[in-house]
Design brief:
Blueprint lengths: L1 E7 L5 E6 L3 H10 L5 E13 L5 E20 L4 E8 L11 E6 L5 E5 L4 H10 L8 E7 L2 E7 L4 E8 L11 H21 L7 E6 L3 H16 L2 H5 L4 E5 L8 H5 L2 H6 L4 H18 L4 E3 L1 H9 L3 E7 L8 H16 L3 E5 L4 H7 L4 E5 L18
Parallel strand pairs: 8-11, 11-12, 14-15
Antiparallel strand pairs: 1-2, 2-7, 3-4, 3-7, 4-5, 5-6, 8-9, 9-10, 13-16, 14-16
Helix pairs in contact: 1-2, 8-11
Length: about 375
Amino acid sequence: MRLEGRCLDKSGSGNVSLIPEEDEDMWHVYNLVTVGDKLKSTTIRKVTSESSTGSSTSERVRTTLTISVESIEYDTIACQIRFKGRNVQENPFVKMGAYHTIDLQLNQKFSLSKEKWDSVALDRLDVACDPSRTADIAALIMQEGLAQLCIVTSAMTITRARIEQQIPRKRRGSCTNHDKALERFYGTVLQAVLRHIRFDVVKCILIASPGFVKDQFLEYLLAEAIKQDIKVLLENKSKFLLVHSSSGHKQSLKEILADPAVAVKLADTKAANEVKALDSFYVMLQNEPNRAFYGFKDVERANESNAIEMLLITDELFRSSDVALRQRYVALVDSVKDTGGSVRIFSSLHVSGEQLGLLTGIAAILRFPLPERNEDSSDDSDSN
């Protein structure tokens, strides 16, 4: 994300001007903008004019509009965000107070104004504009006839390619059709690897599968690299890491990232740290349940006792349209940091974030055990 301008006063209100340059930037924008914010960017407006003879003509004009955001829709496939709201600045084509939409796309400049830039929004802004931010991992999850190529960034998991081909079964005495189909499949996967992986950016390329599919593919890849003199593969062959997975489906990514060999290799990546933190919570929940709380009310109660060692929370909660509830989440994050606890904000587009979402989206590992509440805590989910 390119920061074009930043003007914030001491009270925390103000505006920033940004240009999203990558898919991941759009995810950061989606998390930065909340209902009630003012967003300024260019949009298309259909304008109808009437001539002196009574005939009317219409044309589409591009104009700069500022709206007070009322709804937000994020299309991950088209990589586009649609903001809808009322016009709040004078415009020759749109009346004050009239509804309009702004479709934000990559490389489109916009300005965002907030009455209060809270700590979570400011942290998100700093992460989004960090020039050192990169796609940490590429993961190729395979089984015979199925492959999914994913890019795992600090904020999201993006499926770049899904390859599915029919592979005939091996027949006794003849493997010709099976072997030919498998080679065609590997060739298609290899082309996807070359097309979608930026070898100058990724730290590691995981190849995962049940059985020996991963080994066979890596052998094929290196043989083709030598045969076709594909230098980028030969120069980066040390980045390939073979990992076992239970299937070739995307859901296997969580178990892949939790693999001890992978964890050592990726110790400094955000995605791996999220998986590690969530695994630590599950271990604590099983062994010392009085030191593992989840659900907003219980976690808030633990914070009142300054008991939180690590707070786990999904970014989805900060997109709440309930301003007061969002402020409570932000206050909780600030309080945990002030008392020396650590905070892990999980991306809801990571498999670990999806898992945390099943636990109400908020959990905590405590410094010391606390007694459970006597009353039924089943209404916790109503607070999220």
